[in-house]
Design a protein that fits this description.
Blueprint lengths: L1 E8 L6 E7 L8 E3 L2 H16 L10 E5 L5 H27 L4 H8 L7 H5 L1
Parallel strand pairs: 1-4
Antiparallel strand pairs: 1-2, 2-3
C-alpha cells in the first residue's frame, strides 16, 4: 500500500507536522505525527484498517514524499541510489567475509565508523 507523505501546518495550533494519506486504500483519511518516526508508527497502526484486511495479513508500505522545495524526482533518485549502494554493500561484505576478512577490517575497508560495523554482521 502507498501513503503520500507531506509537511502540513495544523489549523488549530499552526504547528508543522508530517501527514500521510493512503493513496490506494478504501479509506481516504490519513494520519499525522510530529516526527517521521511518529508518523510511521501511526501508519503501522492503521494500515490493516485502511485496507480492510485482518491483522495477520502482511502489508508492506511504500511512502511517496511531497516536500515543498524538494522535487519528487530528486528524492526518488536519491532513494534509488541508496538502495543500490545497500545492495552493493551487502555483496562486498559477503565477499569480504568469505575471503576471511574480519568484521572490523571490513568496516575499515568500507569506510564505516566503528559503531556501524555491526551492520556488516547482518549483511
Amino acid at each position: 500500500m502507498t501513503f503520500r507523505v507531506t509537511l502540513e501546518k495544523t489549523l488549530d495550533t499552526d504547528i508543522t507536522v508530517w501527514g500521510a494519506d493512503p493513496v490506494d486504500g478504501s479509506i481516504r483519511s490519513g494520519v499525522s505525527g510530529r516526527t517521521l518516526a511518529e508518523l510511521f508508527e501511526e501508519v503501522e497502526a492503521v494500515k490493516h484498517f485502511v485496507l480492510d484486511v485482518p491483522e495477520d495479513v502482511p502489508v508492506s508500505v511504500e511512502y511517496v514524499y511531497e516536500i515543498p522545495g524538494v522535487p519528487r524526482e530528486l528524492f526518488a533518485s536519491y532513494q534509488e541510489e541508496r538502495a543500490h549502494l545497500r545492495r552493493m554493500a551487502v555483496e562486498v561484505a559477503t565477499r569480504l567475509r568469505q575471503a576471511g576478512v574480519t568484521e572490523d577490517d571490513s568496516a575499515m575497508l568500507l569506510g564505516l565508523p566503528g559503531s556501524r560495523s555491526g551492520h556488516l554482521q547482518r549483511s
